[in-house]
Write a structure and sequence with these properties.
Number of domains: 3
Bound molecules: 6-phosphogluconic acid
Strand order of the largest sheet: 3-2-1-4-5-6-7
Strand content: 5-15%
Number of strands: 9
Radius of gyration: 25 Å
Largest sheet: 7 strands, mixed
CATH topology of the largest domain: N-(1-d-carboxylethyl)-l-norvaline Dehydrogenase, domain 2
Oligomer: single chain
Helix content: 40-55%
Mean pLDDT: 97
CATH class of the largest domain: Mainly Alpha
Low-confidence stretches: none
CATH superfamily of the largest domain: N-(1-d-carboxylethyl)-l-norvaline Dehydrogenase, domain 2
Distance between the termini: 86 Å
Structural class: alpha/beta
């Protein structure tokens, strides 16, 4: 088909962009793709086969192929490249056209772009997309935000191309402005935290119990059939099976222990601090990626700063079972932190998020999909205004039943010198949240002592200052 009626355009034909184009076309939509890199356009054309796909390396030609009013999606790296593409598009578009940013853009950039484009009568959707290469190709989770009528124009494409769970689409209109990119950012914060606690379980099993890669794979694949069933546990089981080219060696043991990051986890922690929502497991995950990057300092310190020898007592099987239980505990507290953050952000930024919808669209397609999300959906279905998942009747029982296990695992980790900041932060979050009293009265007294910052009393209303005995 060589016409000017393609229903949607895609700018950026890297693996994600190309796979989304193929996914949209598989669901009966005609798609035009653009990339400056001729090789990528050629690859798209080769993969297109009989699908209704057009590829171009000329932006103007690409734009003229689109049905009016136009819908142009872009999948380019977050930051300056998004602005560069928008600036090139503006002279080629007309009022009423729609731009969709499918990258991991910072939500404040999305707000700025929305406003600038609205001044030109161009609609803008900030669309979080999760699921990696295979999600893009066969059904991701889509997290759209912006004007509802703009979303409605592309909802048939997103709905049919999204992942499905129990016949339900893993896409829902989330709210105005940057709601979609915000929810995607928190998704990634949760992703960081889950990856961190899983890596801590690996550390306990590898350095603590000295399991082989075959055994590790077996443990994670067994866990994936139980309470921990999730995409991240599933791929972890696969990872331990992957052999390296050198016979008898495993790829995992050849991978440098320095975790990279593109920033979305850090943004989650940063904004959580701004809106004053505690997300300690996400913070710990970001810090651990940072510590991992201090590779040469860690190597040097490992020759000076000695810890205890590893000694795990009480048997392998009970220890493995307790780690499983601890991971499940941590998983619930991580989702609790992320959802509590979304609740506050929704009020702060006027997103009007429906947390049940968010949990629903995370059940399939995305990186943090996990069977526990069914229970999380049920919790918000019962109580849309639930302040924290930890107090949901079902989930609270789930964690209360496992607190002994996580306490025991953390104790063993500490005694063996194995760092478990993610598990510890998860338990501390639980212990702090369930404390009717915290030692913050001392912090208030100290602030008043050294800075006359005043304090409040628990037996009288008002603001007080005391002349402490310091002068
Ligand atoms: C997803 C992923 C995806 C990307 C991460 C990686 O949901 O599909 O989150 O967006 O793989 O952003 O992030 P880091 O490079 O920061 O680990």
């Amino acid at each position: 088909m060589e016409n000017n009626d393609y229903e949607i355009g895609m700018i950026g034909l890297g693996v994600m962009g190309r796979n989304l184009v193929l996914n949209f076309a598989d669901h009966g939509f005609s798609v035009a793709g653009f990339d400056m890199d001729r090789a990528k356009v050629i690859q798209l054309k080769e993969e297109a086969e009989k699908r209704t796909i057009y590829g171009s390396i000329v932006l103007q030609d690409f734009i003229t192929r689109l049905r009016k009013p136009r819908a142009v999606m872009m999948l380019v790296p977050a930051g300056a490249p998004v602005d560069a593409v928008i600036n090139e598009l503006i002279p080629l578009l007309a009022p009423g056209d729609l731009i969709i940013d499918g990258g991991n853009s910072h939500f404040t950039d999305t707000n700025k772009r929305l406003k600038e484009l609205a001044d030109r009568n161009i609609h803008f959707i900030g669309l979080g997309i999760s699921g990696g290469e295979s999600g893009a190709r066969f059904g991701p989770s889509f997290m759209p935000g912006g004007a509802k009528d703009a979303y409605d124009r592309i909802s048939p494409i997103l709905e049919t191309s999204s992942a499905k769970v129990n016949g339900e689409n893993c896409v829902a209109y989330l709210g105005p402005g940057s709601a979609g990119h915000y929810v995607k950012m928190v998704h990634n914060g949760i992703e960081y935290a889950l990856m961190q606690v899983i890596s801590e379980s690996y550390d306990l099993l590898k350095r603590g119990l000295e399991l082989t890669n075959y055994q590790l794979s077996e443990v994670y694949s067994t866990w994936n059939k139980g309470l921990l069933q999730s995409f991240l546990i599933e791929i972890t089981a696969d990872i331990f099976q992957k052999q390296d080219d050198e016979p008898g060696s495993f790829l995992i043991d050849k991978i440098l222990d320095e975790a990279k990051q593109k920033g979305t986890g850090k943004w989650t922690s940063q904004d959580a601090m701004d809106i004053q929502v505690p997300v300690p497991t996400i913070d710990a995950a970001v810090s651990m990626r940072d510590i991992s990057a201090y590779k040469s300092e860690r190597d040097f310190a490992s020759g000076i700063l000695f810890g205890p020898d590893y000694k795990i007592e009480g048997g392998t099987e009970p220890f493995i079972r307790q780690i499983e239980s601890s991971l499940y505990f941590a998983m619930i507290t991580i989702f609790a932190q992320g959802m509590a953050m979304l609740k506050t952000a929704s009020a702060e930024y006027k997103y009007d998020l429906k947390l049940e919808e968010v949990a629903k669209i995370w059940r399939g397609g995305c990186i943090i999909r996990a069977s526990v999300l069914e229970n999380i959906c049920a919790a918000f279905e019962k109580s849309a205004g639930l302040s924290n998942l930890l107090i949901d009747p079902y989930l609270s029982k789930e964690i209360l039943n496992r607190q002994d296990d996580i306490r025991s695992i953390i104790k063993t980790a500490v005694e063996n010198g194995i760092p478990v900041p993610g598990l510890s932060a998860s338990l501390a979050y639980f212990d702090s949240y369930r404390s009717g009293w915290l030692p913050a009265n001392l912090v208030q007294a100290q602030r008043d002592y050294f800075g006359a910052h005043t304090y409040e009393r628990n037996d009288e209303k008002g603001t007080f200052h005391t002349q402490w005995n310091h002068i």
